[in-house]
From TrEMBL:
<dbReference type="InterPro" id="IPR006104">
    <property type="entry name" value="Glyco_hydro_2_N"/>
</dbReference>
<dbReference type="Pfam" id="PF02929">
    <property type="entry name" value="Bgal_small_N"/>
</dbReference>
<keyword id="KW-0378">Hydrolase</keyword>
<dbReference type="InterPro" id="IPR023230">
    <property type="entry name" value="Glyco_hydro_2_CS"/>
</dbReference>
<dbReference type="GO" id="GO:0005990">
    <property type="term" value="P:lactose catabolic process"/>
</dbReference>
<dbReference type="Pfam" id="PF00703">
    <property type="entry name" value="Glyco_hydro_2"/>
</dbReference>
<dbReference type="GO" id="GO:0030246">
    <property type="term" value="F:carbohydrate binding"/>
</dbReference>
<dbReference type="InterPro" id="IPR014718">
    <property type="entry name" value="GH-type_carb-bd"/>
</dbReference>
<dbReference type="InterPro" id="IPR032312">
    <property type="entry name" value="LacZ_4"/>
</dbReference>
<dbReference type="Pfam" id="PF16353">
    <property type="entry name" value="LacZ_4"/>
</dbReference>
<dbReference type="InterPro" id="IPR011013">
    <property type="entry name" value="Gal_mutarotase_sf_dom"/>
</dbReference>
<dbReference type="InterPro" id="IPR008979">
    <property type="entry name" value="Galactose-bd-like_sf"/>
</dbReference>
<dbReference type="InterPro" id="IPR036156">
    <property type="entry name" value="Beta-gal/glucu_dom_sf"/>
</dbReference>
<feature type="signal peptide">
    <location>
        <begin position="1"/>
        <end position="22"/>
    </location>
</feature>
<protein>
    <recommendedName>
        <fullName>Beta-galactosidase</fullName>
        <ecNumber>3.2.1.23</ecNumber>
    </recommendedName>
</protein>
<dbReference type="InterPro" id="IPR017853">
    <property type="entry name" value="GH"/>
</dbReference>
<dbReference type="Pfam" id="PF02837">
    <property type="entry name" value="Glyco_hydro_2_N"/>
</dbReference>
Length: 1070
């Protein structure tokens, strides 16, 4: 049997320093591991009898079949996906003894789907963990009695024509560890839950009926290397099949498809590894569509393992890039001594080079920009089992949202994803299945003892690290989309990673190495690149830290953040500031990968069948808490979260700046790295007070990649009225066929510029008589059929009516918001808590009349601050509202917001506004929301975040109208304000104890909420656990005198400009 062990000379008994996870910190104790320990507690044994890792491919019988690429059409393929007999054991000490034998009766066993995580099939508990291991950490030991095991059995019939061929069992991914038997005989063992295992089962199978058994252990010593921040589930997660292969066959190929020094002609060499004794001929054929452009072959005499390299040149090749994913088809064949094809494999290849050139990551000699995302494999019903449809949808969404790169966080993804990346154009940072986050954290707390704690320093774990990296390299080495090998994530540093980097470089010098190993670390000037990596890939460095790195010439590696912009919940502030910094330093900064692509919530259902987003607590106690997995650009069903719109805008490869209103000149920047702008159409539109009054198309441009040119918009003939506000918007759309998966006419970018900025002022009030009456409990103002009644005891509007119809009530001073995940994570929620109390409990100091105005003064927080609200009614029944916050107490924290909260009747159902839209926006996340006139249902204005929190805000609002049942009210500020209309009480969003609320709790009910603010704290989002998660200083509120002023105006009907407003629906992303 082939056993992968430590290097020769290693002691048979291994003494390892282990850390026991405990509340009082790490405890170190020696652990003896010897041959008496099971394989799944021995880091020196991670595979038995596995075939060597090889590139993805299938050995078809004919070229026609290979070109079609459908394994199921081959007589050499037998799928084992589907129903298996299954027995679940809650502990490794309670297993069905002898179940692998064909005579063992499994008729009473239940069935389970393969592939599937068994937690999705009703067995065991899914756990969501971040950092902490889901079992007592005492490497390499695993608690036997609480280590669940799944035993699988299936009977299959081998095709009769497989006689005379070898038979290989392929398991796409399972784990964390498993044994395989065929007909009761043990075949082998494997660890690494995210890479395939292949076993030669020729000597174990027999003609006709056969029994295949697999036993999967949920935890193993390999689990210490799989401490990722995701759902901890188990089972057989990718397809299982048998294949018949010729006795003499191609075992592996390594395609090297590069360019000559002039980046003009293609250079192709293919390393072909053949196993088997018979004489044979290896042949390659390169096709461009149906046209053969290259062929080469070589005869190999009889022997055993043989290797040959076939090569050739392709004049004037079309190079592959993510922007121009040009592919050729390479057919690799083996012919027998008679010249007959016995094996044929076809794969799409791309000609390209990857190198560090002039200090930058370069493809085909040109520097590139990474507009990337991190992608976990996640499905809201099946956990880690991902369909091809889901992968295709992900890639389509990425392409339509200007994303050009994926980091396969934090493990090799399903092979089909790489095919899609090759075909449609995405750069891939392929990441090994290595993360030992808890041990990294222990060491970071005691850095002088790093070598004691971190597995990267432990020689007993060296080969386990190296094998996970090199097996990934072997599987994915032929994909042009893969340009980086990542050694893992948050696993510390040490010689084991140096060895893994060296092994990857030795096998594949044509790609770059990425690895950090530190986690988030240090201050603004603390940068820690690894010498054995080609790039510096930190995580969550804020823009100011990136700027510091770029300016320090002691650091030579280009920076590409492996993770940045932690978009948990209502987040995603500062995206623009990140990219302003990146574009300011093209000599060092090359982009990064946002954390992360998709939420990891699960579908759960209420007793009455309503679906909601289930959190970790839905599956029992989880160290991951109630929000850890809600940090995606998309919800888990691929519905966009609002910050995706902001990312798409900032990631746009076509941008505009330097607009001159007088001449109409504007600079167009082509931020593509390879293609010109001939594949895009541009159009312009002028808005007058939010309404389009002029538009046109721009002449086609062919601006070269990474170049800019100035154009002139034809605005001279656009009439402009005095006092009106004008904006010009330029939009970029794809032409047919220009961008793979992106239909012609799709908007991929826009910019909006002010043409004029009128002085901000509320419209003059109408003349007329205003009557003011006072009673013991209220003050009432009346004019033109309108009535505003102020309650003396609460200081709030008891009712505001027009012709007897209720418009609004309330007007409470409001300084709190339903805390976001970032507010919780960085501690703002606790720090600002005094303002919550001041929003909920106020003392009315006085209610007094001054002419046509009623002035209400509130004392807040036992004298900590005061708020004065002045209501002045005009002759037309409209009311000017002037609010003033005055902090009194020294050292008050800043409030989350400064404004007033109103309640409107439930039959008010429509909102229209002139401001930023159509989606929600915040002071630090608004560039994707252009100024315009928008209209929509109030019930559609909140976003369904996993955990209810602040949502629905609109910034830079000039006015907002809320209407229904034939009447409405207009809110218009003396300057742009923030406004929010929600179809439920705002308090519904505020945080309750974990497990006591669900997203389904947020439904339209009660009165409509209207919030009018002059200031609100930004959403932030650089991180969610440090001060870097706070909004940037310019987006923070302050405990200082603050005013909010606006006018409430009643109207009849359904709005003053409904025919001109645009629907406030989600921006198209798919």
């Amino acid at each position: 049997m082939r056993i992968f062990r430590l290097a020769a000379g290693a002691a048979s008994v291994l003494a390892m320093a282990s850390v026991v996870q405990a509340q009082d910190g790490p405890q170190v104790q020696p652990v003896q591991v010897d041959a008496s320990r099971p394989d799944w507690e021995n880091p020196a044994v991670f595979a038995r009898n596995k075939l060597p890792a090889s590139a993805t491919g299938f050995p078809f019988e004919t070229r026609r079949q290979a070109l079609a690429g459908i394994e199921a059409d081959s007589r050499r393929y037998l799928s084992l996906d589907g129903e298996w007999k299954f027995a679940f054991s809650p502990g490794a000490n309670r297993l069905p003894d002898g179940f692998e034998r064909p005579d063992y009766d499994v008729s009473a066993w239940k069935t389970i789907k393969v592939p599937a995580d068994w937690q999705a099939q009703g067995y065991d508990q899914a756990r969501y963990n971040n950092i902490a291991y889901p079992f007592p950490a005492n490497r390499p030991l695993i608690p036997h009695e609480t280590n669940p095991v799944g035993s699988y059995r299936r009977d299959i019939t081998l095709p009769a024509d497989w006689t005379g061929q070898d038979v290989v069992l392929q398991i796409g991914a399972a784990g964390s560890a498993y044994y395989v038997w065929v007909n009761g005989q043990k075949v082998g063992y494997s660890e690494d839950s995210k890479l395939p295992s292949a076993f030669d089962v020729t000597r174990f199978v027999k003609p006709g009926r056969n029994t295949v058994a697999i036993q999967v252990y949920r935890w193993s010593d390999g689990s210490y290397l799989e401490d990722q921040d995701f759902w901890r589930v188990s089972g057989i997660e990718r397809s299982v099949y048998l294949m018949a292969v010729p006795r003499t066959r191609i075992a592996d190929t390594f395609v090297h498809a590069g360019l000559d020094d002039a980046n003009r002609d293609g250079r192709l060499s293919v390393d072909v590894a053949v196993t088997g004794a018979e004489a044979a001929t290896a042949r390659i054929v390169l096709l461009d569509g149906d046209r053969q452009v290259l062929t080469a072959n070589q005869v190999m005499p009889k022997g055993q393992a043989r290797r040959v390299t076939l090569s050739g040149q392709v004049p004037q090749v079309r190079p592959w890039t993510a922007e121009t994913p040009e592919l050729y088809t390479l057919v690799t064949e083996l012919l027998d001594s008679r010249g007959a094809v016995v094996q044929s494999t076809a794969r799409r290849i791309g000609f390209r080079t990857v190198a560090i050139k002039d200090g930058l990551v370069s493809i085909n000699g040109r520097p590139i920009t990474i507009r990337g995302v991190n992608r976990h494999e996640h499905d809201p019903e099946t956990f880690h089992v991902i369909s091809r449809d889901s992968m295709e949808r992900d890639v389509r969404l990425m392409k339509r949202n200007n994303i050009n790169a994926i980091r396969t966080s934090h493990y090799p993804n399903d092979p089909y994803l790489y095919e899609l990346a090759d075909r449609y154009g995405l750069y891939v940072m392929d990441e090994a299945n290595i993360e030992s986050h808890a041990y990294m954290d222990y060491a970071n707390r005691a850095p002088r003892q790093r070598a004691k704690y971190q597995l990267g320093f432990d020689p007993a774990w060296r080969e386990a690290h190296v094998s996970r990296v090199t097996n990934m390299v072997e599987r994915d080495k032929n994909h042009p989309s893969v340009i980086f090998w990542s050694l893992g994530n948050e696993a510390g540093i040490g010689p084991n990673f140096e060895a893994a980097a060296a092994a990857a470089k030795t096998r594949d010098p044509g790609r770059l190495i990425s690895y950090l190993g530190w986690g988030t670390w240090g201050g603004i000037s603390d940068h820690r690149p690894n010498w054995y990596a080609d790039i510096y890939a930190p995580m969550y460095d804020p823009a100011v830290k990136m700027d510091d790195y770029a300016r320090n010439w002691n650091y030579k590696q280009p920076m590409i953040q492996c993770e940045y912009l932690h978009v948990m919940g209502n987040s995603g502030g500062n995206i623009k500031e990140y990219w302003d910094t990146i574009y300011a330093h093209p000599e060092k900064l090359q982009g990064g990968f946002v954390w992360d692509w998709v939420d990891q919530s699960m579908y759960r259902y209420t007793k009455d069948g309503r679906r909601y987003w289930g959190d970790g607590g839905e599956y029992g106690p989880n160290p991951g808490g109630d929000i850890e997995f809600g940090d995606g650009l998309l919800q888990s069903d691929r519905t966009p979260n609002p910050h995706l719109y902001e990312l798409r805008k900032v990631y746009s490869p076509v941008q505009f700046d330097g607009f001159d209103p007088a001449s109409g000149r504007v600079t167009v920047r082509n931020r593509h790295d390879f293609r010109d702008l001939s594949g895009f159409a541009m159009e312009w539109e002028v808005l007058e007070n939010g309404v389009a009054v002029a538009s046109g198309k721009l002449p086609p441009l062919s601006t070269a990649a990474r170049r800019a040119e100035t154009i002139t918009l034809p605005l001279a003939g656009v009439a402009r009225k005095a006092g009106a506000e004008y904006f010009v918007t330029i939009r970029v759309r794809t032409r047919d066929g220009a961008v793979p998966l992106v239909p012609g006419g799709t908007e991929i970018g826009f910019e909006q510029f002010a043409l004029s900025t009128p002085s901000a002022a509320v419209a003059p009030t109408a003349a007329g008589n205003v009557a003011v009456t006072q009673s013991a409990d209220a003050v009432t103002m009346r004019a033109a059929g309108a009535s505003l009644e102020i309650d003396r005891s609460t200081g709030l509007i008891r009712r505001y009516t027009k012709d007897g119809q209720e418009l609004t009530t309330g007007g409470a001073p409001h300084f709190w918001r339903a805390v976001t995940d970032n507010d919780l994570g960085v501690g703002s929620a606790g720090e600002m808590a005094p303002w919550k109390a001041m929003s909920e409990t106020r003392r009315v100091r006085s209610v007094r009349v001054a002419g046509d105005a009623v002035i209400v003064t509130f004392d807040l927080g036992d004298g900590a601050a005061t708020f004065e609200a002045r209501y002045t009614m005009a002759g037309d029944g409209s009311v000017a509202v002037d609010g003033a916050l005055t902090p009194v107490k020294e050292g008050l924290p800043p409030p989350f917001r400064v404004g007033l909260a109103f309640a409107l009747p439930t039959d008010v159902t429509t909102v229209e506004w002139y401001g930023r839209g159509p989606h929600e926006s915040y002071v630090d996340r608004k560039t994707s929301a252009p100024i315009g006139l928008w209209r929509g249902a109030i019930a559609a204005q909140n976003h369904d975040y996993i955990r209810p929190q602040e949502t629905g805000n609109k910034v830079d609002v000039r006015w907002m109208e809320l209407s229904g049942a034939g009447r409405g009210v207009r809110v218009e500020g003396d300057r742009p304000l923030m406004m929010n209309a929600l179809a439920f009480p705002y308090a519904d969003l505020d945080r309750k104890e974990p497990g006591t609320w669900k997203s389904t709790d947020i439904v339209p009910h009660g009165q409509v909420t209207l919030l009018v603010d002059s200031a609100q704290w930004g959403v932030g989002g650089d991180t969610q656990w440090s001060d870097f998660g706070l909004p940037l200083p310019e987006y923070r509120t302050r405990a200082e005198p603050t005013r909010v002023s606006f006018r409430l105006t009643p109207f009849a009907g359904n709005g003053t400009t409904p025919a001109k407003a645009r629907p406030a629906q989600a921006t198209e992303v798919e």
